[in-house]
Design a protein that fits this description.
It is an enzyme of class 3 (hydrolase). This protein is an alpha/beta fold and about 525 residues long. It has helices at about 40-55, 75-90, 120-130, 150-155, 165-170, 185-190, 200-205, 220, 225-230, 260-270, 280-285, 315-325, 340-350, 350-370, 430, 495-500, 510, and strands at about 1-10, 15-20, 65-70, 105-110, 175-180, 230-235, 275, 295, 335-340, 380-385, 385-390, 390, 405-410, 415-420, 420-425, 430-435, 440, 460, 465-470, 470-475, 485-490. It has 17 helices and 21 strands. The protein is globular, with a radius of gyration of 24 Å. The chain starts with a strand and ends in an 11-residue tail after the last helix. Bound molecules: 2-acetamido-2-deoxy-beta-D-glucopyranose (4 copies) and zinc ion.
Length: about 525
């Protein structure tokens, strides 16, 4: 039994508190039989109702903001991810909840960009980090800048400032964590301004036919202004930071043409104790009390998928914990960006099982952040930049293996199909046999569906599966989380976060009311 408190407040003069004892919700169902009882569903819904009645808006000032971005984490990815996670843990997957699905407030964000109906991770990063929508494949610059417009991207009036810059101006600490290269589109949104997301190193700029002197690459911007202020940077991508004459600790050559070793420059440019780590052992051994700045690069390129082999690589959860430990030394609070960046990559490869597994990893990182913070002073927002074309095909039986075959056969060709499939993708010929005018589906039983590396079936042939244009969910917990409900443009998100934490150029909680710090109540 749980006790719920229902409080009515009429013009702040009258407070009435009544205790209801609601039934406990049962999430960890192991047998389908439990679901057959009408009492189960009735009391389940009643318990949700009690929970809602006891909810009160949290109107304290957010000291800390942790923004979690599941790259490409569409709503069907969340649904399938929760089923996958539940099935791995031996419970009925459909009943399971990922960590952020326990948050009290959810909204929907519209993800299109200024010039595209379906967006990419670059223009969406501008939206959810700077509060302004922009053009496809550009980062941190307004829509006056077209793709590859190097001169336009350098003009101060076209550069957008990210919520990390707002937080720095508000004297908070800032950091970023990702499973991709730290120069990849989403994390670059925290600190970079560029007319092409692919300008990650000066080699890339040159390779794409532009002059690196007129077009500063993303890696070098980690040493400019906002990048320089970041106290924690954890992810992958050593090759973007090292000269092409030098090998990284994993034995791979760097990429830079300008001969700069940006890792060493980063360390030398810091006042205070700046630590650089290249593996999990050193990350976990790091003592946050003696760390003013922390740079961790754990792969030459992106971090390996959790399901794949790697050497001494930290999980997203471990990196999130390390980042919070450093940033929470700051009594003024912090802004932290955490990206589960490889959900998207797995989808592009139509490797649905990996996409779901990365989603579960992402959820584990959210759980760790919740354990290390409290909801009275820390606003946690979880969302995706854009969707994907993966769908959950009907009508498998309850608790049917989500990564396997549907329990039904096609009623047209009598062949099995996978519950998960994509609207488009690579390897068309693997799934369809063409003879003359006839197109037949391949019998999936001859393929290894369910293996981590298996590609899932798809429709339209493409070199890689595309993003999807559906709205994505925004889950919020902590101060002003109730602002995140409803359907709104993606670029609204940093405005709401800035309001809650009293940072940024827009209206904030502190402009509206006298300053109020955190509650004495601890979660
Ligand atoms: C981790 O990195 C440190 C410093 O670069 C190195 O001395 C150590 O051997 C590495 N550990 C492993 C397991 O590779
Ligand atoms: C880096 O990632 C690649 C590709 O996923 C993987 O094969 C390799 O083992 C990783 N390196 C380390 C040091 O973990
Ligand atoms: C689901 O099916 C796939 C392949 O058929 C298999 O590899 C996987 O282990 C199954 N998962 C569970 C939880 O049974
Ligand atoms: C509230 O805090 C902000 C930022 O710290 C400060 O600029 C402002 O003067 C404060 N307002 C009041 C009423 O104390
Ligand atoms: Zn993508």
């Amino acid at each position: 039994m749980r006790i719920f408190c229902l409080a009515f407040s009429i013009q702040f003069t009258f407070c009435y508190c009544q205790y209801f004892s609601g039934p406990d919700p049962t999430w960890n169902i192991r047998s389908k039989n439990e679901m057959k009882s009408k009492d189960f569903w009735f009391s389940d819904a009643q318990s949700t109702l009690y929970e809602k009645l006891s909810m009160q808006p949290n109107q304290y000032q957010a000291k800390n903001i942790i923004f979690f971005l599941g790259d490409g984490m569409s709503v069907p990815t969340v649904t399938a991810g929760r089923i996958y996670d539940g099935q791995q843990r031996g419970i009925i997957g459909e009943r399971n909840r990922l960590e952020f699905e326990k948050f009290p407030y959810v909204g929907l964000s519209k993800t299109y960009c200024v010039d595209k109906q379906v967006s990419d991770s670059a223009c969406t990063a501008s939206a959810y980090l700077t509060g302004v929508k922009a053009n496809y494949e550009t980062i941190g610059v307004s829509a006056d800048v077209k793709r590859n417009d190097c001169s336009g991207a350098k003009l101060p009036q076209n550069q957008l400032s990210s919520i990390a810059a707002w937080a720095m101006r508000g004297h908070k600490s800032t950091g970023l964590v990702t499973t991709t290269r730290v120069t990849h589109a989403s994390p670059a949104g925290v600190y970079a301004h560029t007319s092409n997301r692919d300008f990650e190193s000066d080699f890339d700029v040159h390779d794409l036919g532009h002059d690196p002197n007129n077009c500063p690459d993303i890696a070098q911007q980690l040493l400019d202004e906002v990048g320089q202020g970041l106290r924690v940077v954890l992810g992958g991508g050593t090759k973007k930071f090292l000269p092409n004459t030098m090998r990284d600790v994993y034995g791979n050559l760097g990429q830079r043409l300008d001969g700069r070793n940006l890792i060493e420059e980063w360390q030398r440019s810091k006042f205070g104790n700046a630590r650089v780590v290249f593996n999990r052992t050193d990350l976990l051994r790091n003592d946050a009390r003696y760390t003013d700045y922390l740079l961790g690069l754990f792969n030459t390129s992106h971090l390996a998928y959790n399901l794949d082999d790697s050497i001494d690589t930290p999980s997203l959860e471990e990196m999130t914990e390390a980042a919070i430990e450093v940033l929470s030394q700051d009594p003024a609070g912090y802004f932290l960006f955490v990206e589960g960046g490889r959900i998207d990559h797995a989808h592009h490869e139509t490797k649905a099982k990996k996409a779901l597994d990365e989603t579960v990893q992402f959820s584990n990182a959210v759980r760790k952040a919740r354990q290390l913070t409290n909801r009275w002073d820390t606003l946690i927002v979880v969302t995706a930049d854009h969707g994907h074309t993966m769908t959950i095909n009907g009508y498998a039986d309850i608790n049917n293996n989500i990564t396997g075959f549907n329990s039904e056969l096609s009623d047209v060709d009598n062949l099995p199909y996978a519950t998960l499939s994509y609207a488009n993708g690579p390897n068309y010929k693997k799934f369809y046999k063409v003879s003359g005018n006839e197109v037949d589906r391949v019998d999936l039983r001859t393929l290894n569906i369910g293996h981590k590396k298996a590609r899932y079936p798809h429709g339209v042939p493409m070199s890689e599966e595309t993003h999807g244009g559906g709205d994505v969910a925004v889950y919020a917990n902590g101060p002003w989380a109730h602002l995140f409900s409803g359907v709104y443009e993606q670029n609204t998100i940093p405005h709401l976060m800035g309001f809650a934490a009293c940072i940024g150029p827009g209206i904030t909680y502190c402009n509206l009311r006298p300053n109020k710090t955190t509650s004495p109540i601890v979660d």
